[in-house]
Design goal:
mainly alpha
Amino acid sequence: MINYLSQDGTLGPTAEKASALLQKRIQQGNLELPLLPGVASDVLALVQDKDSDASGLAKLIQSDQALAGHVMRIANSALYSPGSNFVSLQQAIARLGMNMISEIAFAASVNAKTFHAPGYEDLIQQLWRHSLASALWGKEVARKARKNVEAAFLCGLLHNIGMPVVLQALVEIMSGPDGEFAENELSEQEVSIILHRYRQVVGSSVANLWKLPDAVAETINYFENYYAAPTVKDVVALVFAGSRFATYMFDSSCMTREEFLQLPVIADLNLYEDEVEALWEKTPDIQSTIEALSV
């Protein structure tokens, strides 16, 4: 499994050549970007429409029976509705609110299947699961840090949206018609470096194409430097913290609990040790929600 979170190391000649071709595509505007699935686009537009209402959201979700069933399964998960069970979409919207149901519907519509990178299906899935986890943890951290919860999920879900697009383009370059690259010539570390190298610029292009909210675009651009975020510093910090929780959840060998507590973002969000420990108790619920959303 590629450790896509690592950007240490150098590129060999072949990887540098592939990276240069990728950069040329980006500069010339020739990078193929995925379209936002129709239902996800409609959900996003509805949420940003001040005149929208719960009945409109319910009607939109119910227009896709598979999506409606998926949303209900997630809404009835332990993370969203502990101790209760919704029997209708209208009931779930009334209890959880339009924003939360919209988040679930959006995440269920935009998934790993949106991206195509033959030979790297497992990595695409890994990228998406980490983004889901970052979004879910970001919301939990926001509650514990007494910050605005609403933007944390969408920004967390899409903060690394550039990575699977970069991977998709990289696969196209490596399997180009001129055959100048042998199959699987790039090492796992080189793939990781290239994903990081173009994550931000490609993610920004996706944000423009999909007409994502400004907070999402700012999170993409300042994720690794949340101190410099001009308007939504708290949101970007929440997403960064959520991503650290996600990383530790998937691989606890990356650091000790003591090292985790010493992360600067923990202090920046004024989280105390007992609050972090309380957050870790959410792990089983978050894991089960990720499994449901990854179907």
